[in-house]
Amino acid sequence: MDRTVPKRSSSMPSGSPPAANLLDDHIFSSNVEDYDINANSPIGYGASAIVYGAVYKPLNKKVAVKMIDLDFFERNQIDEVRRETQLMSLSKHANVLRVYGSFVNESKLFIVTPYMSAGSCSDIMKTAHPDGFEENIIATILKQALQGLDYLHKNGHIHRDVKAGNLLVDKDGSVLLADFGVSSSLTENGDRKGIRRTFVGTPCWMAPEVMEHAGYDYKADIWSFGITSLELATGNAPFAKYPPLKVIMVTLSKEPPTLDRESTKHKYTKTFKDMIDMCLHKDPTKRPSAEKLLSHPFYRVAKRKDYLVSKILQHLPPLEERPHKRVQQKPITYTKGVTWDFAVDSEHRDNDDQENSILQANEGKPEGKRVEFSDTNDNTDTKSDSSAVTNVPPKKSRFLVGDAATESKVPLSLSVPTISSTVSVTPQSPLSRSQPPSAGTNFVSNPLSPGEKDEQNAQRLQPQQSQEIRKGRFSVIESNGSKEKTSSSGSQHESDNNQRPPISKERSNEKLTGDP
Ligand SMILES: Nc1ncnc2c1ncn2[C@@H]1O[C@H](COP(=O)(O)OP(=O)(O)OP(=O)(O)O)[C@@H](O)[C@H]1O
């Protein structure tokens, strides 16, 4: 598959909105004391972070501070996220959230961004539009988001986590793409020599080729954009009620989701449905680029951004006063050589469904293309107190899809301690309780740079003896022959494999271009 992104442009595409030029020259302080953080009322929770409103004292300016507890991450992943954060600070497009600055204090990484006072589109829907928005509103939101996405793609970047929760809205009706880079850095295997192309995302928005680990490019964002469109029209992403593995199974085995115009609260046009269907082609080559999509007739009904102010922002309660549900997520851990343990959260306490999904998702999959899963956070000691800045982020649904750590006949154990159930499957099945997973076979595959397709295919065919250990949201690789090892400090890499760096490492050297 062609991993190339559209050719980098030296200037923004014509018609792009002007960059937010705010505070460009100010160097934000790295002293946590300079930020008056409202620790009592977080404004949002991510898979790896808690977001607070704060006042930046030197400028007396309201900002958002995203706090990530680095204790959960490996050293190389921390370096990675810092590089990505620096990259985000270069972004100056009006529809991409700028990073003002970042710093580490004790074991916390603080990322300072503009305060987007209306919160995310997901947040707005939960607060006031649970069944979705009207079409004109959706077009106005999506057009701005698409302009941001087009900017990222034209600069050689893949967002990888497009969803309504990452479309932030400011008080003037601007819509900005957020979380670009950070979440992917924290979720991608930062180990240059481990399994390639592992990816953590939120399964409902994840493109099939990402789930299949077949290699992906910027068109994966277009799929997520199509899912986000459905989310804005119905209040939820398709399959949102399913357990994550069932989402994966259904996405891979069924027809792509589409807009059911008969069942929505608001009336939607065929044009809108057509735009969504274009994004949700299973074959990524059939999906349009962001630039192409912008010329779709659907966007003709998009209004100026202040339309959003009058239609949806006016009566919203302030962010700090909105109810924010702390999502208790499944703690799924793979203990080296022993078991997959997973507890099912109260929302998805459908064990049979979950187990069947695991089995069905993997049934008949070619070697090396099995779906695996991991939780986002290895810390089972989830604190519920939201009053301290040192809070542990709540567990949230982000799952890792990667190459199978074992060859198809090597069984994995599954046990569900919290609900006293154990998966039992036939010995032929990829999943079995009968034996612990011995060191397995990884079919190593790398992210492709342009022109590396053949090399990558060749690599995929070469099994590599190693064992994958899931730790938190990351893959940790250990090989049988001690050739390759990632310790918890994440620094030792002795493999002689000629692996490519993950996408984000390649990207991190690139500069965003084309500021208008
Ligand atoms: N700059 C900001 N201004 C206002 N609200 C924000 C800002 N950044 C994040 N939020 C709120 O915090 C929530 C969590 O943000 P965060 O980027 O950590 O996680 P996420 O993208 O929703 O989840 P994940 O990390 O799982 O992708 C957002 O959905 C949004 O509601």
Automatic annotation (TrEMBL):
Low complexity bias: where?
9-18, 420-438
Which segments constitute the Protein kinase domain?
Answer: 37-299
Region annotated Disordered, chain positions: 1-20, 348-394, 420-516
Give start-end positions of Basic and acidic residues composition bias: 364-373, 493-516
Which positions does UniProt annotate for ATP binding? K66
Annotated Pfam families: Pkinase
Q: Where is the composition biased (Polar residues)?
A: 439-448, 458-467
Annotated GO MF terms: ATP binding; protein kinase activity; protein serine/threonine kinase activator activity
Q: In which domain of life is the source organism classified?
A: Eukaryota
Classification via InterPro entries: Kinase-like_dom_sf, Prot_kinase_dom, Protein_kinase_ATP_BS, STRAD_A/B-like
Transferase is among the record's keywords = yes
Q: Which UniProt keywords apply?
A: ATP-binding, Kinase, Nucleotide-binding, Transferase
The family classification in the record reads: Belongs to the protein kinase superfamily. STE Ser/Thr protein kinase family. STE20 subfamily.
**Xref: PANTHER family:** SERINE/THREONINE-PROTEIN KINASE FRAY2, SERINE_THREONINE-PROTEIN KINASE FRAY2
* Entry protein name: Kinase-like protein
Q: Which organism is it from?
A: Rhizophagus irregularis
